[in-house]
Amino acid sequence: ILALQVQLCLWFCTPTYTEAAKEQLPAAENGTLKFPGLFAFGDSILDTGNNNNLATVAKCNFPPYGRDLVGGIPTGRFGNGKVLSDLIVHILITGKLRYKCSGLGIKELLPPYLDPNLQSPDLPTGVCFASGSSGYDPLTPTITGTLSVFKQLELFKEYIVKLTGIIGEERARAIIANSLYLVSAGNNDILISYSLIARKLHYDFPSYAALLVSMASTFLRCDLTLKDYIASGKANWCFQYSSSGMLPFDRNRGGLLRELHQTNFTDAKLVFLDIYHPLLDLNQHPHKSGFQVEKFGCCGTGTIGVAVLCNEFSPFTCTDASKYLYWDAVHPTERALRIGKKKQRTNI
After folding, report:
1. Strand, coil or helix: what is 128?
2. pTM for this model (two decimals)
3. Helix 169-178 to helix 149-167 angle, to the nearest 10 degrees?
4. Where is the signal peptide (predicted)?
5. d(CA 139, CA 202)
6. N or C: which end of the chain has fewer CB within 10 A?
7. What three-state secondary structure class fits 185?
């Protein structure tokens, strides 16, 4: 199962504030500024329900998904409860001071932007644009019928127009400029697109991985440029995406972050959030964290059940997901995500 959890997951935010921006943003309890909102892009690790009304099999708005959320209602989250974007947007109560800032404390759950019942008061504090089974490779969402990361950016632009209409241009710019942005993508490209002859004929695995890093760079540049454009009012928010312009380059993730920071986005703080190694540690030492089952998911047989193959009629579904490292054949349980995030100790 762990092999399916390869992630390219990055945070980026702008920690510099103008006096005008400070007047528009709430202050934290300790007197310093906190992030006014969170925006999530990418795949099912962050998706809170954007696939519900898409023509795709990559959806989970049915039982037993979501059974451990308040009310036990399936919302389209790929898990038994909260997903990573929810955990980050909400403060986790652990009883240990060093974990006090493990969540942003903005709201309980991060709503999906495509939720038809999305309320205006939810917009200023952030929404989720991520789409399960999406990826950086444009072939991936084409196959799965989900939102490409660049379609997610188009929805972000649409969101900004709505936000400006609700709270005004000045406050909208302050929120966009100073919020936290979370991106998780790449695993579906490897799992889905790279398994096809069309990709394997042109790329060995190292060159395909390099291509994904190049695509990630293009996406992040567009997202950061869009954010800066909205915040400053300057023209030309982003160059257009072109698959022919995606030349593979052999740079690791740290190199990508350094390049982005040192070239055009010196005011941005970019952090790589490693999901793989915390999950690897949990797989190798599950009992240290109280997990009893790490080789199979809770839902169904735990080996192939995911999305529509994990449903209320799936036999052998466990009764207590907290004992399991994985909820279905791919996605960690909420408890595993909580523990994995604590292991990060990332200074956001």
Report:
1. strand
2. 0.84
3. 140
4. 1-20
5. 14
6. C
7. strand
Count of CB atoms situated within 10 Å of the CB of 170: 13
Orientation angle between helical segments 149-167 and 205-232, nearest 10 degrees: 10
Structure tokens at 72: 């036990």
Q: What is the mean pLDDT of each run of 10 residues along the chain (348 residues)?
A: 44 46 49 73 97 97 97 97 91 32 70 97 96 96 97 95 96 89 92 93 93 88 67 42 33 59 66 81 95 95 89 94 96 94 66
Spatial contact of 171 and 23, defined as CB atoms under 8 Å apart: no
The domain spans of the chain are 8-274
Distance CA 163, CA 168 (A): 7
Q: Which two tokens stand for residue 148?
A: 């490409």
- Residue positions annotated with a catalytic role: 44, 328, 331
Are β-strands 8-13 and 269-272 bridged in parallel, bridged antiparallel, or unpaired? Answer: antiparallel
SS3 state at 320: coil
pLDDT digits (tens, 9 = 90+) for 212-237: 988 988 888 887 666 665 555 443 33
Q: Which of 166, 184, 186, 185 is nearest to 175 (CA)?
A: 166
Q: What 3-state DSSP class applies to 99?
A: helix
Q: Distance between CA 195 and CA 177 in Å, rounded?
A: 39
**Alpha helices in 168-263, H assignment, sequence order:** 169-178, 187-191, 197-200, 205-232, 253-263
Q: How far apart are CA 330 and CA 4, in angstroms?
A: 6
In the numeric block, the tokens 């921006």 are attached to 21
259: phi > 0 → left, psi -120 to 50 → alpha, else beta; which?
Answer: alpha
